[in-house]
């Protein structure tokens, strides 16, 4: 009976260690490796912050966030879509909100990872200003050579 009890305790201990290791890996991965969609969000937001047309319309500083909500988690979650095209290039599309002291807007951006130089390049970057006066701005557009 003691061998059976010891074996059953060992199974529970190993299962607990496995769950702890999986949780530790998830935290480690989340803290040290930035997800691709957040890299794309950052690149798009930097491009928007440096654009004079956007700064004139909504002011500066410009902030970006995921969804219109009072919920902090919803604001931090960036809606995105990831896929691979027929040539094997990885694409990421993000949609997010921007706000400045004088107005706000929506952003749609798509980037792909070029196989040749391994860099992320914009397919498009569109800013739709909602207030104070509606406008659509095409900041980036990729046309293959």
Automatic annotation (TrEMBL):
- A Pfam family hit: TIM21
Keyword Glycosyltransferase among record annotations = no
Q: Which InterPro entries match?
A: Tim21, Tim21_IMS_sf
Answer whether the UniProt record assigns the keyword Signal to this protein: no
Q: Name one GO cellular component term.
A: TIM23 mitochondrial import inner membrane translocase complex
Q: Mind telling me which residue stretches traverse the membrane in this protein?
A: 6-28
- Subcellular location, in the record's words? Mitochondrion inner membrane
The principal localisation class reads mitochondrion
Output the Gene3D superfamilies linked to this UniProt entry. Answer: Mitochondrial import inner membrane translocase subunit Tim21
What is the membrane topology listed in the Swiss-Prot or TrEMBL record?
Single-pass membrane protein
Its keywords, alphabetically, are: Membrane, Mitochondrion, Mitochondrion inner membrane, Protein transport, Transit peptide, Translocation, Transmembrane, Transmembrane helix, Transport
Q: What is one GO biological process annotated to this record? A: protein import into mitochondrial matrix
Q: Assembly and partners?
A: Component of the TIM23 complex.
- PANTHER family linked to this entry: MITOCHONDRIAL IMPORT INNER MEMBRANE TRANSLOCASE SUBUNIT TIM21
Report the protein's function. Answer: Essential component of the TIM23 complex, a complex that mediates the translocation of transit peptide-containing proteins across the mitochondrial inner membrane.
Q: Tell me the protein family, please.
A: Belongs to the TIM21 family.
This protein's name: Mitochondrial import inner membrane translocase subunit Tim21
| Annotated source species | Dorcoceras hygrometricum
């Amino acid at each position: 009976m003691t061998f059976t009890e010891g074996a059953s305790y060992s199974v529970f201990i190993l299962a607990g260690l496995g769950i702890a290791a999986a949780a530790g890996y998830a935290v480690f991965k989340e803290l040290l490796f930035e997800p691709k969609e957040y890299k794309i969000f950052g690149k798009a937001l930097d491009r928007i912050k440096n654009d004079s047309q956007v700064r004139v319309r909504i002011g500066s500083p410009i902030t970006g966030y995921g969804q219109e909500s009072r919920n902090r988690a919803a604001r931090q979650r960036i809606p995105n879509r990831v896929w691979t095209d027929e040539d094997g290039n990885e694409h990421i599309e993000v949609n997010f909100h921007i706000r400045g002291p004088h107005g706000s807007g929506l952003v749609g951006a798509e980037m792909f990872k070029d196989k040749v130089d391994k860099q992320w390049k914009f397919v498009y970057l569109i800013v739709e200003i909602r207030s104070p006066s509606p406008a659509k701005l095409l900041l980036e557009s990729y046309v293959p050579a």
